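B., you asked whether I could sanity-check this one before it goes into the benchmark set. Here's the sequence:
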Amino acid sequence: MPDNGFAHLRSDAALNRARFAVAAAAWREAKRQPLTADDSARRAFAMRLDAAAAKNERTLLRTIGGKFNPPLTREDLSDVTGARADALIEWDRRIASIISVAADDSEQFGARRERMEARLLQAFAARINAEQQQDLGIDQYVWRSRDDSDVRPLHATHDDKVFDWDDPPEGGHPGHAFNCRCHAEPYLPDDEPDWVPDIGPEFEAALRAAEDRGFYRAVRDFAADYLESLRDLIGLAGTIGELAYLLLKLGTQGLTRQETQRFQEILGGALGEAEALKELALHAPKLAVSFRNYSQSVHARARETEAAYRSGFTTQADAEAAREASGYLNTQVLLHTISSVGLGATTLPKLLKGMPSGKSLRVGASVAELRMHLQRLSRQNRNWLRRDFRHARNTAIIFGKGIRQQGDPFEAHLAKEGKLGLWLHTIAPNFKTFDFWDKVSKTATSVKTIDVWKKSYTDDPRRIFHRLKGYIDKMHHFGRDMRNDFELSADEIVVKRLELAIPRGVSSGQLNEIRRAIAYAESLKIEMIVTVVHQ
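And here's what the prediction gave me:
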């Protein structure tokens, strides 16, 4: 029979073991609580995030605040609450992982938590620095390292160099690599002289040649419309025959000094535009006014584009085209005036078809249609700086939300249009400089977006040009790149194109700088296409 005394002792021992297990569990829980689960640790980390945000704010205001007019204040810096919330969520996730492996060892737990928080703070500081700089329109930074023996060799080579936020260097931006202590210092170029084209006698000669082309086309078109052959035009008696001969010789062999003098005498002694419009005004006075306004806008555009090119605000091609149109119109009016053709509602459509956008006029258009057409062309001439821009809707581009919301949707929009060839993002992500390659036309296209409403661009529109100039220079100096199995070298490229998207509402000053960039690109034989996005 079992001894009741020993049974009692065994029962007490089991009870004691159970009590000890409960006490041990409670002790472990108590030990775990103050280390991890109470709000004080989370609040302490949140305070460290706030301190990092304040430090970044002070650094930005100190380094670039004075380069703005008026100087930047903390109210100009973007809010960091989103980045702060993300950091705290990540802290919650990681602290749970640390609890699962180190809750019983306060020393190990503390060390792990400190390393974790240091990495989160590093990532948070790098993120808000990038976001606040880019929100201001600061697209470049200077890489700054700690200049000590612990700096990675790769980061040492990056030190003191300028990089683009939308084109990270090898290894990523400062602070992105594990335990990276480097910093991205905002970069705004100092005042640089405005770029203007190198204009020499060749430009004047090009304008004269453009005007000559206009004269020659006008004679050819006039003859095609009203005479059976150019020989008939030359055979006309009097001034018009002599003028026709000189114009034809000008367009083929060139004129002697005496012929040039006679040519100028004929033009100078011809009836003025006011005389040419008299007959038209008698029969259609409102149409005469519309044509006069149109004619004035054509000649004004020729003058303005020449001046704009000299200032770097447009291309030589624009200036030549405007001068050719002016020469064409002058000659057509002259030919209509000194001949029996005259200017009228029936002859104007033929005259206009040789002008820019003139071919869109319907044959047999009424006087009302003619007036509306002339008024539209006049508006285009007055607003010629904006006229060449494309417009796009439903592109999914959201300006002001960073590169992912701007550049990527614009690339996708262009890829959907299917006009630029292969989208390199699909086969060679992060390819250098270019985003599309058309192997048929040998055209390499770079795609960029600029939010012109960023603080730095509204403060000084010239920064838009310098930003675009940086893109254009990279395209010009492109040598070679290879990603995955795709390789492209400069000697394969025949045409380089820059596709730029901007939001609506560009100011006149900003528009001038965009046009300056187009002219600069032309000087390097790079095409630049601007798309205005309607959000």
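One thing to flag: The radius of gyration is 36 Å. Otherwise nothing jumped out at me.
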